[in-house]
Design a protein that fits this description.
The protein is mainly alpha-helical and 200 residues long. It has a domain of 119 residues. The chain is 68% helix and 0% strand. The chain is built from eight helices and no strands.
């Protein structure tokens, strides 16, 4: 179902009455790097030690690839799921609707650790359940590296000026998602899955 996002304001909005919850909903763009670069480094090290560089590289690339699909699925089917109940609408606004209403709010362009850490743990234990132990470290390093690239790319697409090349193309695609049709162009770091699922 297509929704019209009409605010498109550079301003921000208060989401919570609680000062603590409000503070937790905002985060500078560099915080995910502080939190997750050491995590990625740890899993890279563990994978290289356990498997050697070539196997690590293969597992890392697999994790990156699965991240691109996860990014698309979450953006399309989770962030753009429109509930009918009042509480569901409130949750949707907190998780993604606020970003479409205030797309250039610099404090809400990357996922706050209060949300990203539980999600990262959930994915880690899912992959641990699904995968051979030897694959897990390298794969999860790639998956989390993909997430970091997504968060940093998303911030830049809203706040950096690109003159040409791939970055300009990604920015144009993301701005069309925001300002033309939010039911298309769900890929942020790539349009691969938009091409495959015909949501370009």
């Amino acid at each position: 179902m297509k929704k019209n996002y009409i605010s498109n304001s550079r301003e921000s909005t208060r989401m919570f009455k609680s000062p603590l919850l409000e503070a937790l909903s905002k985060v500078p763009f560099f915080v995910p790097l502080i939190v997750y670069v050491p995590v990625v480094g740890y899993f890279v090290w563990q994978s290289v030690i356990q498997n050697g560089f070539l196997s690590f590289a293969g597992h890392l690339l697999m994790g990156l690839f699965i991240w691109t699909l996860t990014e698309y699925i979450m953006h399309r089917f989770v962030f753009h799921f429109y509930p009918s109940s009042d509480w569901g609408k409130r949750i949707h606004f907190i998780f993604h609707g606020v970003h479409h209403d205030y797309p250039n709010d610099a404090q809400r362009l990357v996922m706050p650790p209060s949300a990203s850490i539980p999600l990262a743990l959930a994915f880690y234990f899912l992959f641990k359940w699904l995968m051979a132990p030897a694959m897990l470290d390298g794969f999860f390093a790639g998956f989390m590296l993909g997430y970091l690239f997504y968060d940093m790319t998303h911030y830049m697409l809203h706040h950096a000026n690109f003159k040409s090349g791939l970055w300009k193309k990604l920015k144009q695609q993301h701005m069309l998602h925001h300002y033309s049709d939010p039911t298309t162009k769900y890929g942020v770091t790539s349009d691969l899955w938009d091409k495959i699922f015909r949501t370009r």
